[in-house]
Amino acid sequence: MKTKICSAILSLIAINAFSQVGIGTPTPLAMLDVNGTMKIRSTPAAPALPGYQILAVNQNIGGDFQVAQVNPQMIIDAAVNTINVNSSNTSVYAAKKTSGITLLSLGLFPTGFRVVDFLQTERTLGTAALFNDTDHTYTVPTNGVYAIGFTFRYGTGLQAAVLTNTPGIGILRTRAGVATIIDSRAFSGANLIVLSLTISETSLNSLYTLQSGDKISFGLTGSSLLNAGLIDTSVGSFFIYKVSN
Prior knowledge:
Distance between the termini: 71 Å
CATH architecture of the largest domain: Sandwich
Structural class: mainly beta
Number of strands: 17
Number of helices: 3
Shape: elongated
């Protein structure tokens, strides 16, 4: 038996180093061409991923398969890119208005609510088609849960008096012709011994369940007594995007 084994080893050694060996095929196409299944009894466990390569099967155009080494980072990058492409969020929209703000009122609005006249040209993210310049509303594209943020600074953000009529900011939803304030927050004020102050800057940031076709407006509540000159120099911004079905 030993003589046979030694003969086999010597025969393999005698094969030219650059020849191709086929197992299950008489016409090998690589240094080692296996036409069949392969079984590995045991493999050592990698202590960490860095420094290691992954063996992957590459199917050529001709229908043959080759095993090639792949950097694990390539697989991670490919997976991330696929997720980003498939989960592109077309509901994203954001805008910022830094001057020339006008507050508009419509008959269907709740008493005291006036909308900020955001325009498509003031968007910082998103598709213009999501926003309507005529009524200054964002149209919800599909049913789901949306993250909405709205920030408004009236004037410099600090007033040397407690503002009357409890003004603040609000998010308005119009559905089937019915307008409803879905969230609001008043500016905070304080009567002190030596002076009175109103911090006239505030924000809303939360999750809201919306329906396709809902129109979302951003404006001020209790704003009828606000100074038009200060409103003109105010700053407002908002963002909205779908986070879940």
